[in-house]
């Protein structure tokens, strides 16, 4: 399995930077209350807009429409630069359209966490691993925002800074920075509408129904079920504050005439940063893997092979964190 497909199915990048804080910190508790508002706003508000992702000299623009109606959550995300990509979500069903490959990936369990829905459902314990401060006010996309800054207390996580709409609580900008204060990545709305009526057509895929007899689309299902018994694998190294949030088996179709591939997937989180572990069997003729750590913006990735199994560990944490975590994974004897 290509690591890129794992990214589409399991992760989404997390985010990041560093403006000037107010001269007087107003206390961690008040800052945490702002973060709690962010956690709720992304789940309950309807909004649409355009945001820009920046990683060094590279940037990518996306358009998002998110609607909450009658207890249902509907979302459409389009990448407007480079290779076209589109994600359509209806509650827990996620369809990812890759038109250049004429491929649709359907997942029946929505594990994707994408901007602006970046904040955890539970904030308990964040203060143990981050210094949380309330900063100044700033204007983002013509909205008045409150800056919240989280500085890591150790080397296992990055610092983060958030710009929160003071009226709605929606996250409008996010930056992630390293231990030297240098920005690694950023996401920010450049145009946004909150609570305005949305046409049903705005949530429809631009590619659904475009298949023809000459150019059919491949449809691959990713079926997920919770994994209660994962005793085959041991995780001997703990990252402080990171607890297991999910363990699942993913069965991913590989196309006509090919058996579905099963991938084991664990998610560990400190309540904000997340580390995912993917394990699948390798064919005997598989090429050797590069065991070094690679970074894609704020995402660090490392691979290992253990007794014929490929292990991919990735997360929005420093390279030293994924390397340490990966080295502690063992197959139970």
Descriptive notes:
- The chain starts with a helix and ends with a strand.
- The protein has an 18-stranded mixed sheet, sandwiched between helices. It has a two-stranded antiparallel ribbon with strand order 13-20.
- The chain is globular, with a radius of gyration of 20 Å.
- With 333 residues, the protein is mainly beta.
- It folds into two domains: 201 residues, Clam (outer membrane lipoprotein receptor (LolB), chain A), CATH 2.50.20; 110 residues, MucB/RseB, C-terminal domain (Phosphorylase Kinase, domain 1, 2-Layer Sandwich).
- The chain is 11% helix and 46% strand.
- The chain is built from four helices and 20 strands.
Question: Helix- and strand-based class?
Answer: mainly beta
Strand content range: over 45%
How many individual helices? 4
Using the 3D structure, state the CATH architecture of the largest domain.
Clam
Give keywords.
333 residues; mainly beta; outer membrane lipoprotein receptor (LolB), chain A; Phosphorylase Kinase, domain 1; 18-stranded mixed β-sheet; 20 strands; globular; disordered N terminus
């Amino acid at each position: 399995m290509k690591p890129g497909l794992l990214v589409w199915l399991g992760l989404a990048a997390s985010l990041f930077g560093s403006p000037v804080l107010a001269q007087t910190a107003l206390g961690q508790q008040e800052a945490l209350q702002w973060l709690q508002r962010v956690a709720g706003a992304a789940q309950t508000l309807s909004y649409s807009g355009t945001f820009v992702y920046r990683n060094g000299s590279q940037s990518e623009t996306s358009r998002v429409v998110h609607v909450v109606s009658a207890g249902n959550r509907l979302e459409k995300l389009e990448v407007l630069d480079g290779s076209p990509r589109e994600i359509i979500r209806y509650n827990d069903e996620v369809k990812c359209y890759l038109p250049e490959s004429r491929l649709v990936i359907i997942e029946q369990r929505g594990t994707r966490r994408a901007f602006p829905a970046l904040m955890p459902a539970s904030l308990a314990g964040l203060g143990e691993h981050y210094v949380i401060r309330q900063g100044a006010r700033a204007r983002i996309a013509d909205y008045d925002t409150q800056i919240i800054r989280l500085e890591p207390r150790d080397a296992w996580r990055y610092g983060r800074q958030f710009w929160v709409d003071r009226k709605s609580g929606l996250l409008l900008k996010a930056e992630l920075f390293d231990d030297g204060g240098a920005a690694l990545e950023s996401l920010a709305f450049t145009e946004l509408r909150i609570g305005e009526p949305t046409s049903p057509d705005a949530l429809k895929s631009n590619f659904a129904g475009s298949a023809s007899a000459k150019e059919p689309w491949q449809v691959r299902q990713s079926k997920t079920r919770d994994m209660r018994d994962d005793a085959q694998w041991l995780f001997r190294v703990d990252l402080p504050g990171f607890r297991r949030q999910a363990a699942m088996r993913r069965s991913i179709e590989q196309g006509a005439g090919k058996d579905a591939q099963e991938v084991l997937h664990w998610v560990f989180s400190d309540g904000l940063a997340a580390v995912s572990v993917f394990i699948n069997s390798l064919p005997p003729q598989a090429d050797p893997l590069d065991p070094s750590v690679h970074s894609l913006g704020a995402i660090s990735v490392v691979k290992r092979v253990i007794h014929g199994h490929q292990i991919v560990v990735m997360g929005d944490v420093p390279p030293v964190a994924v390397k340490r975590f990966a080295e502690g994974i063992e197959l139970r004897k």
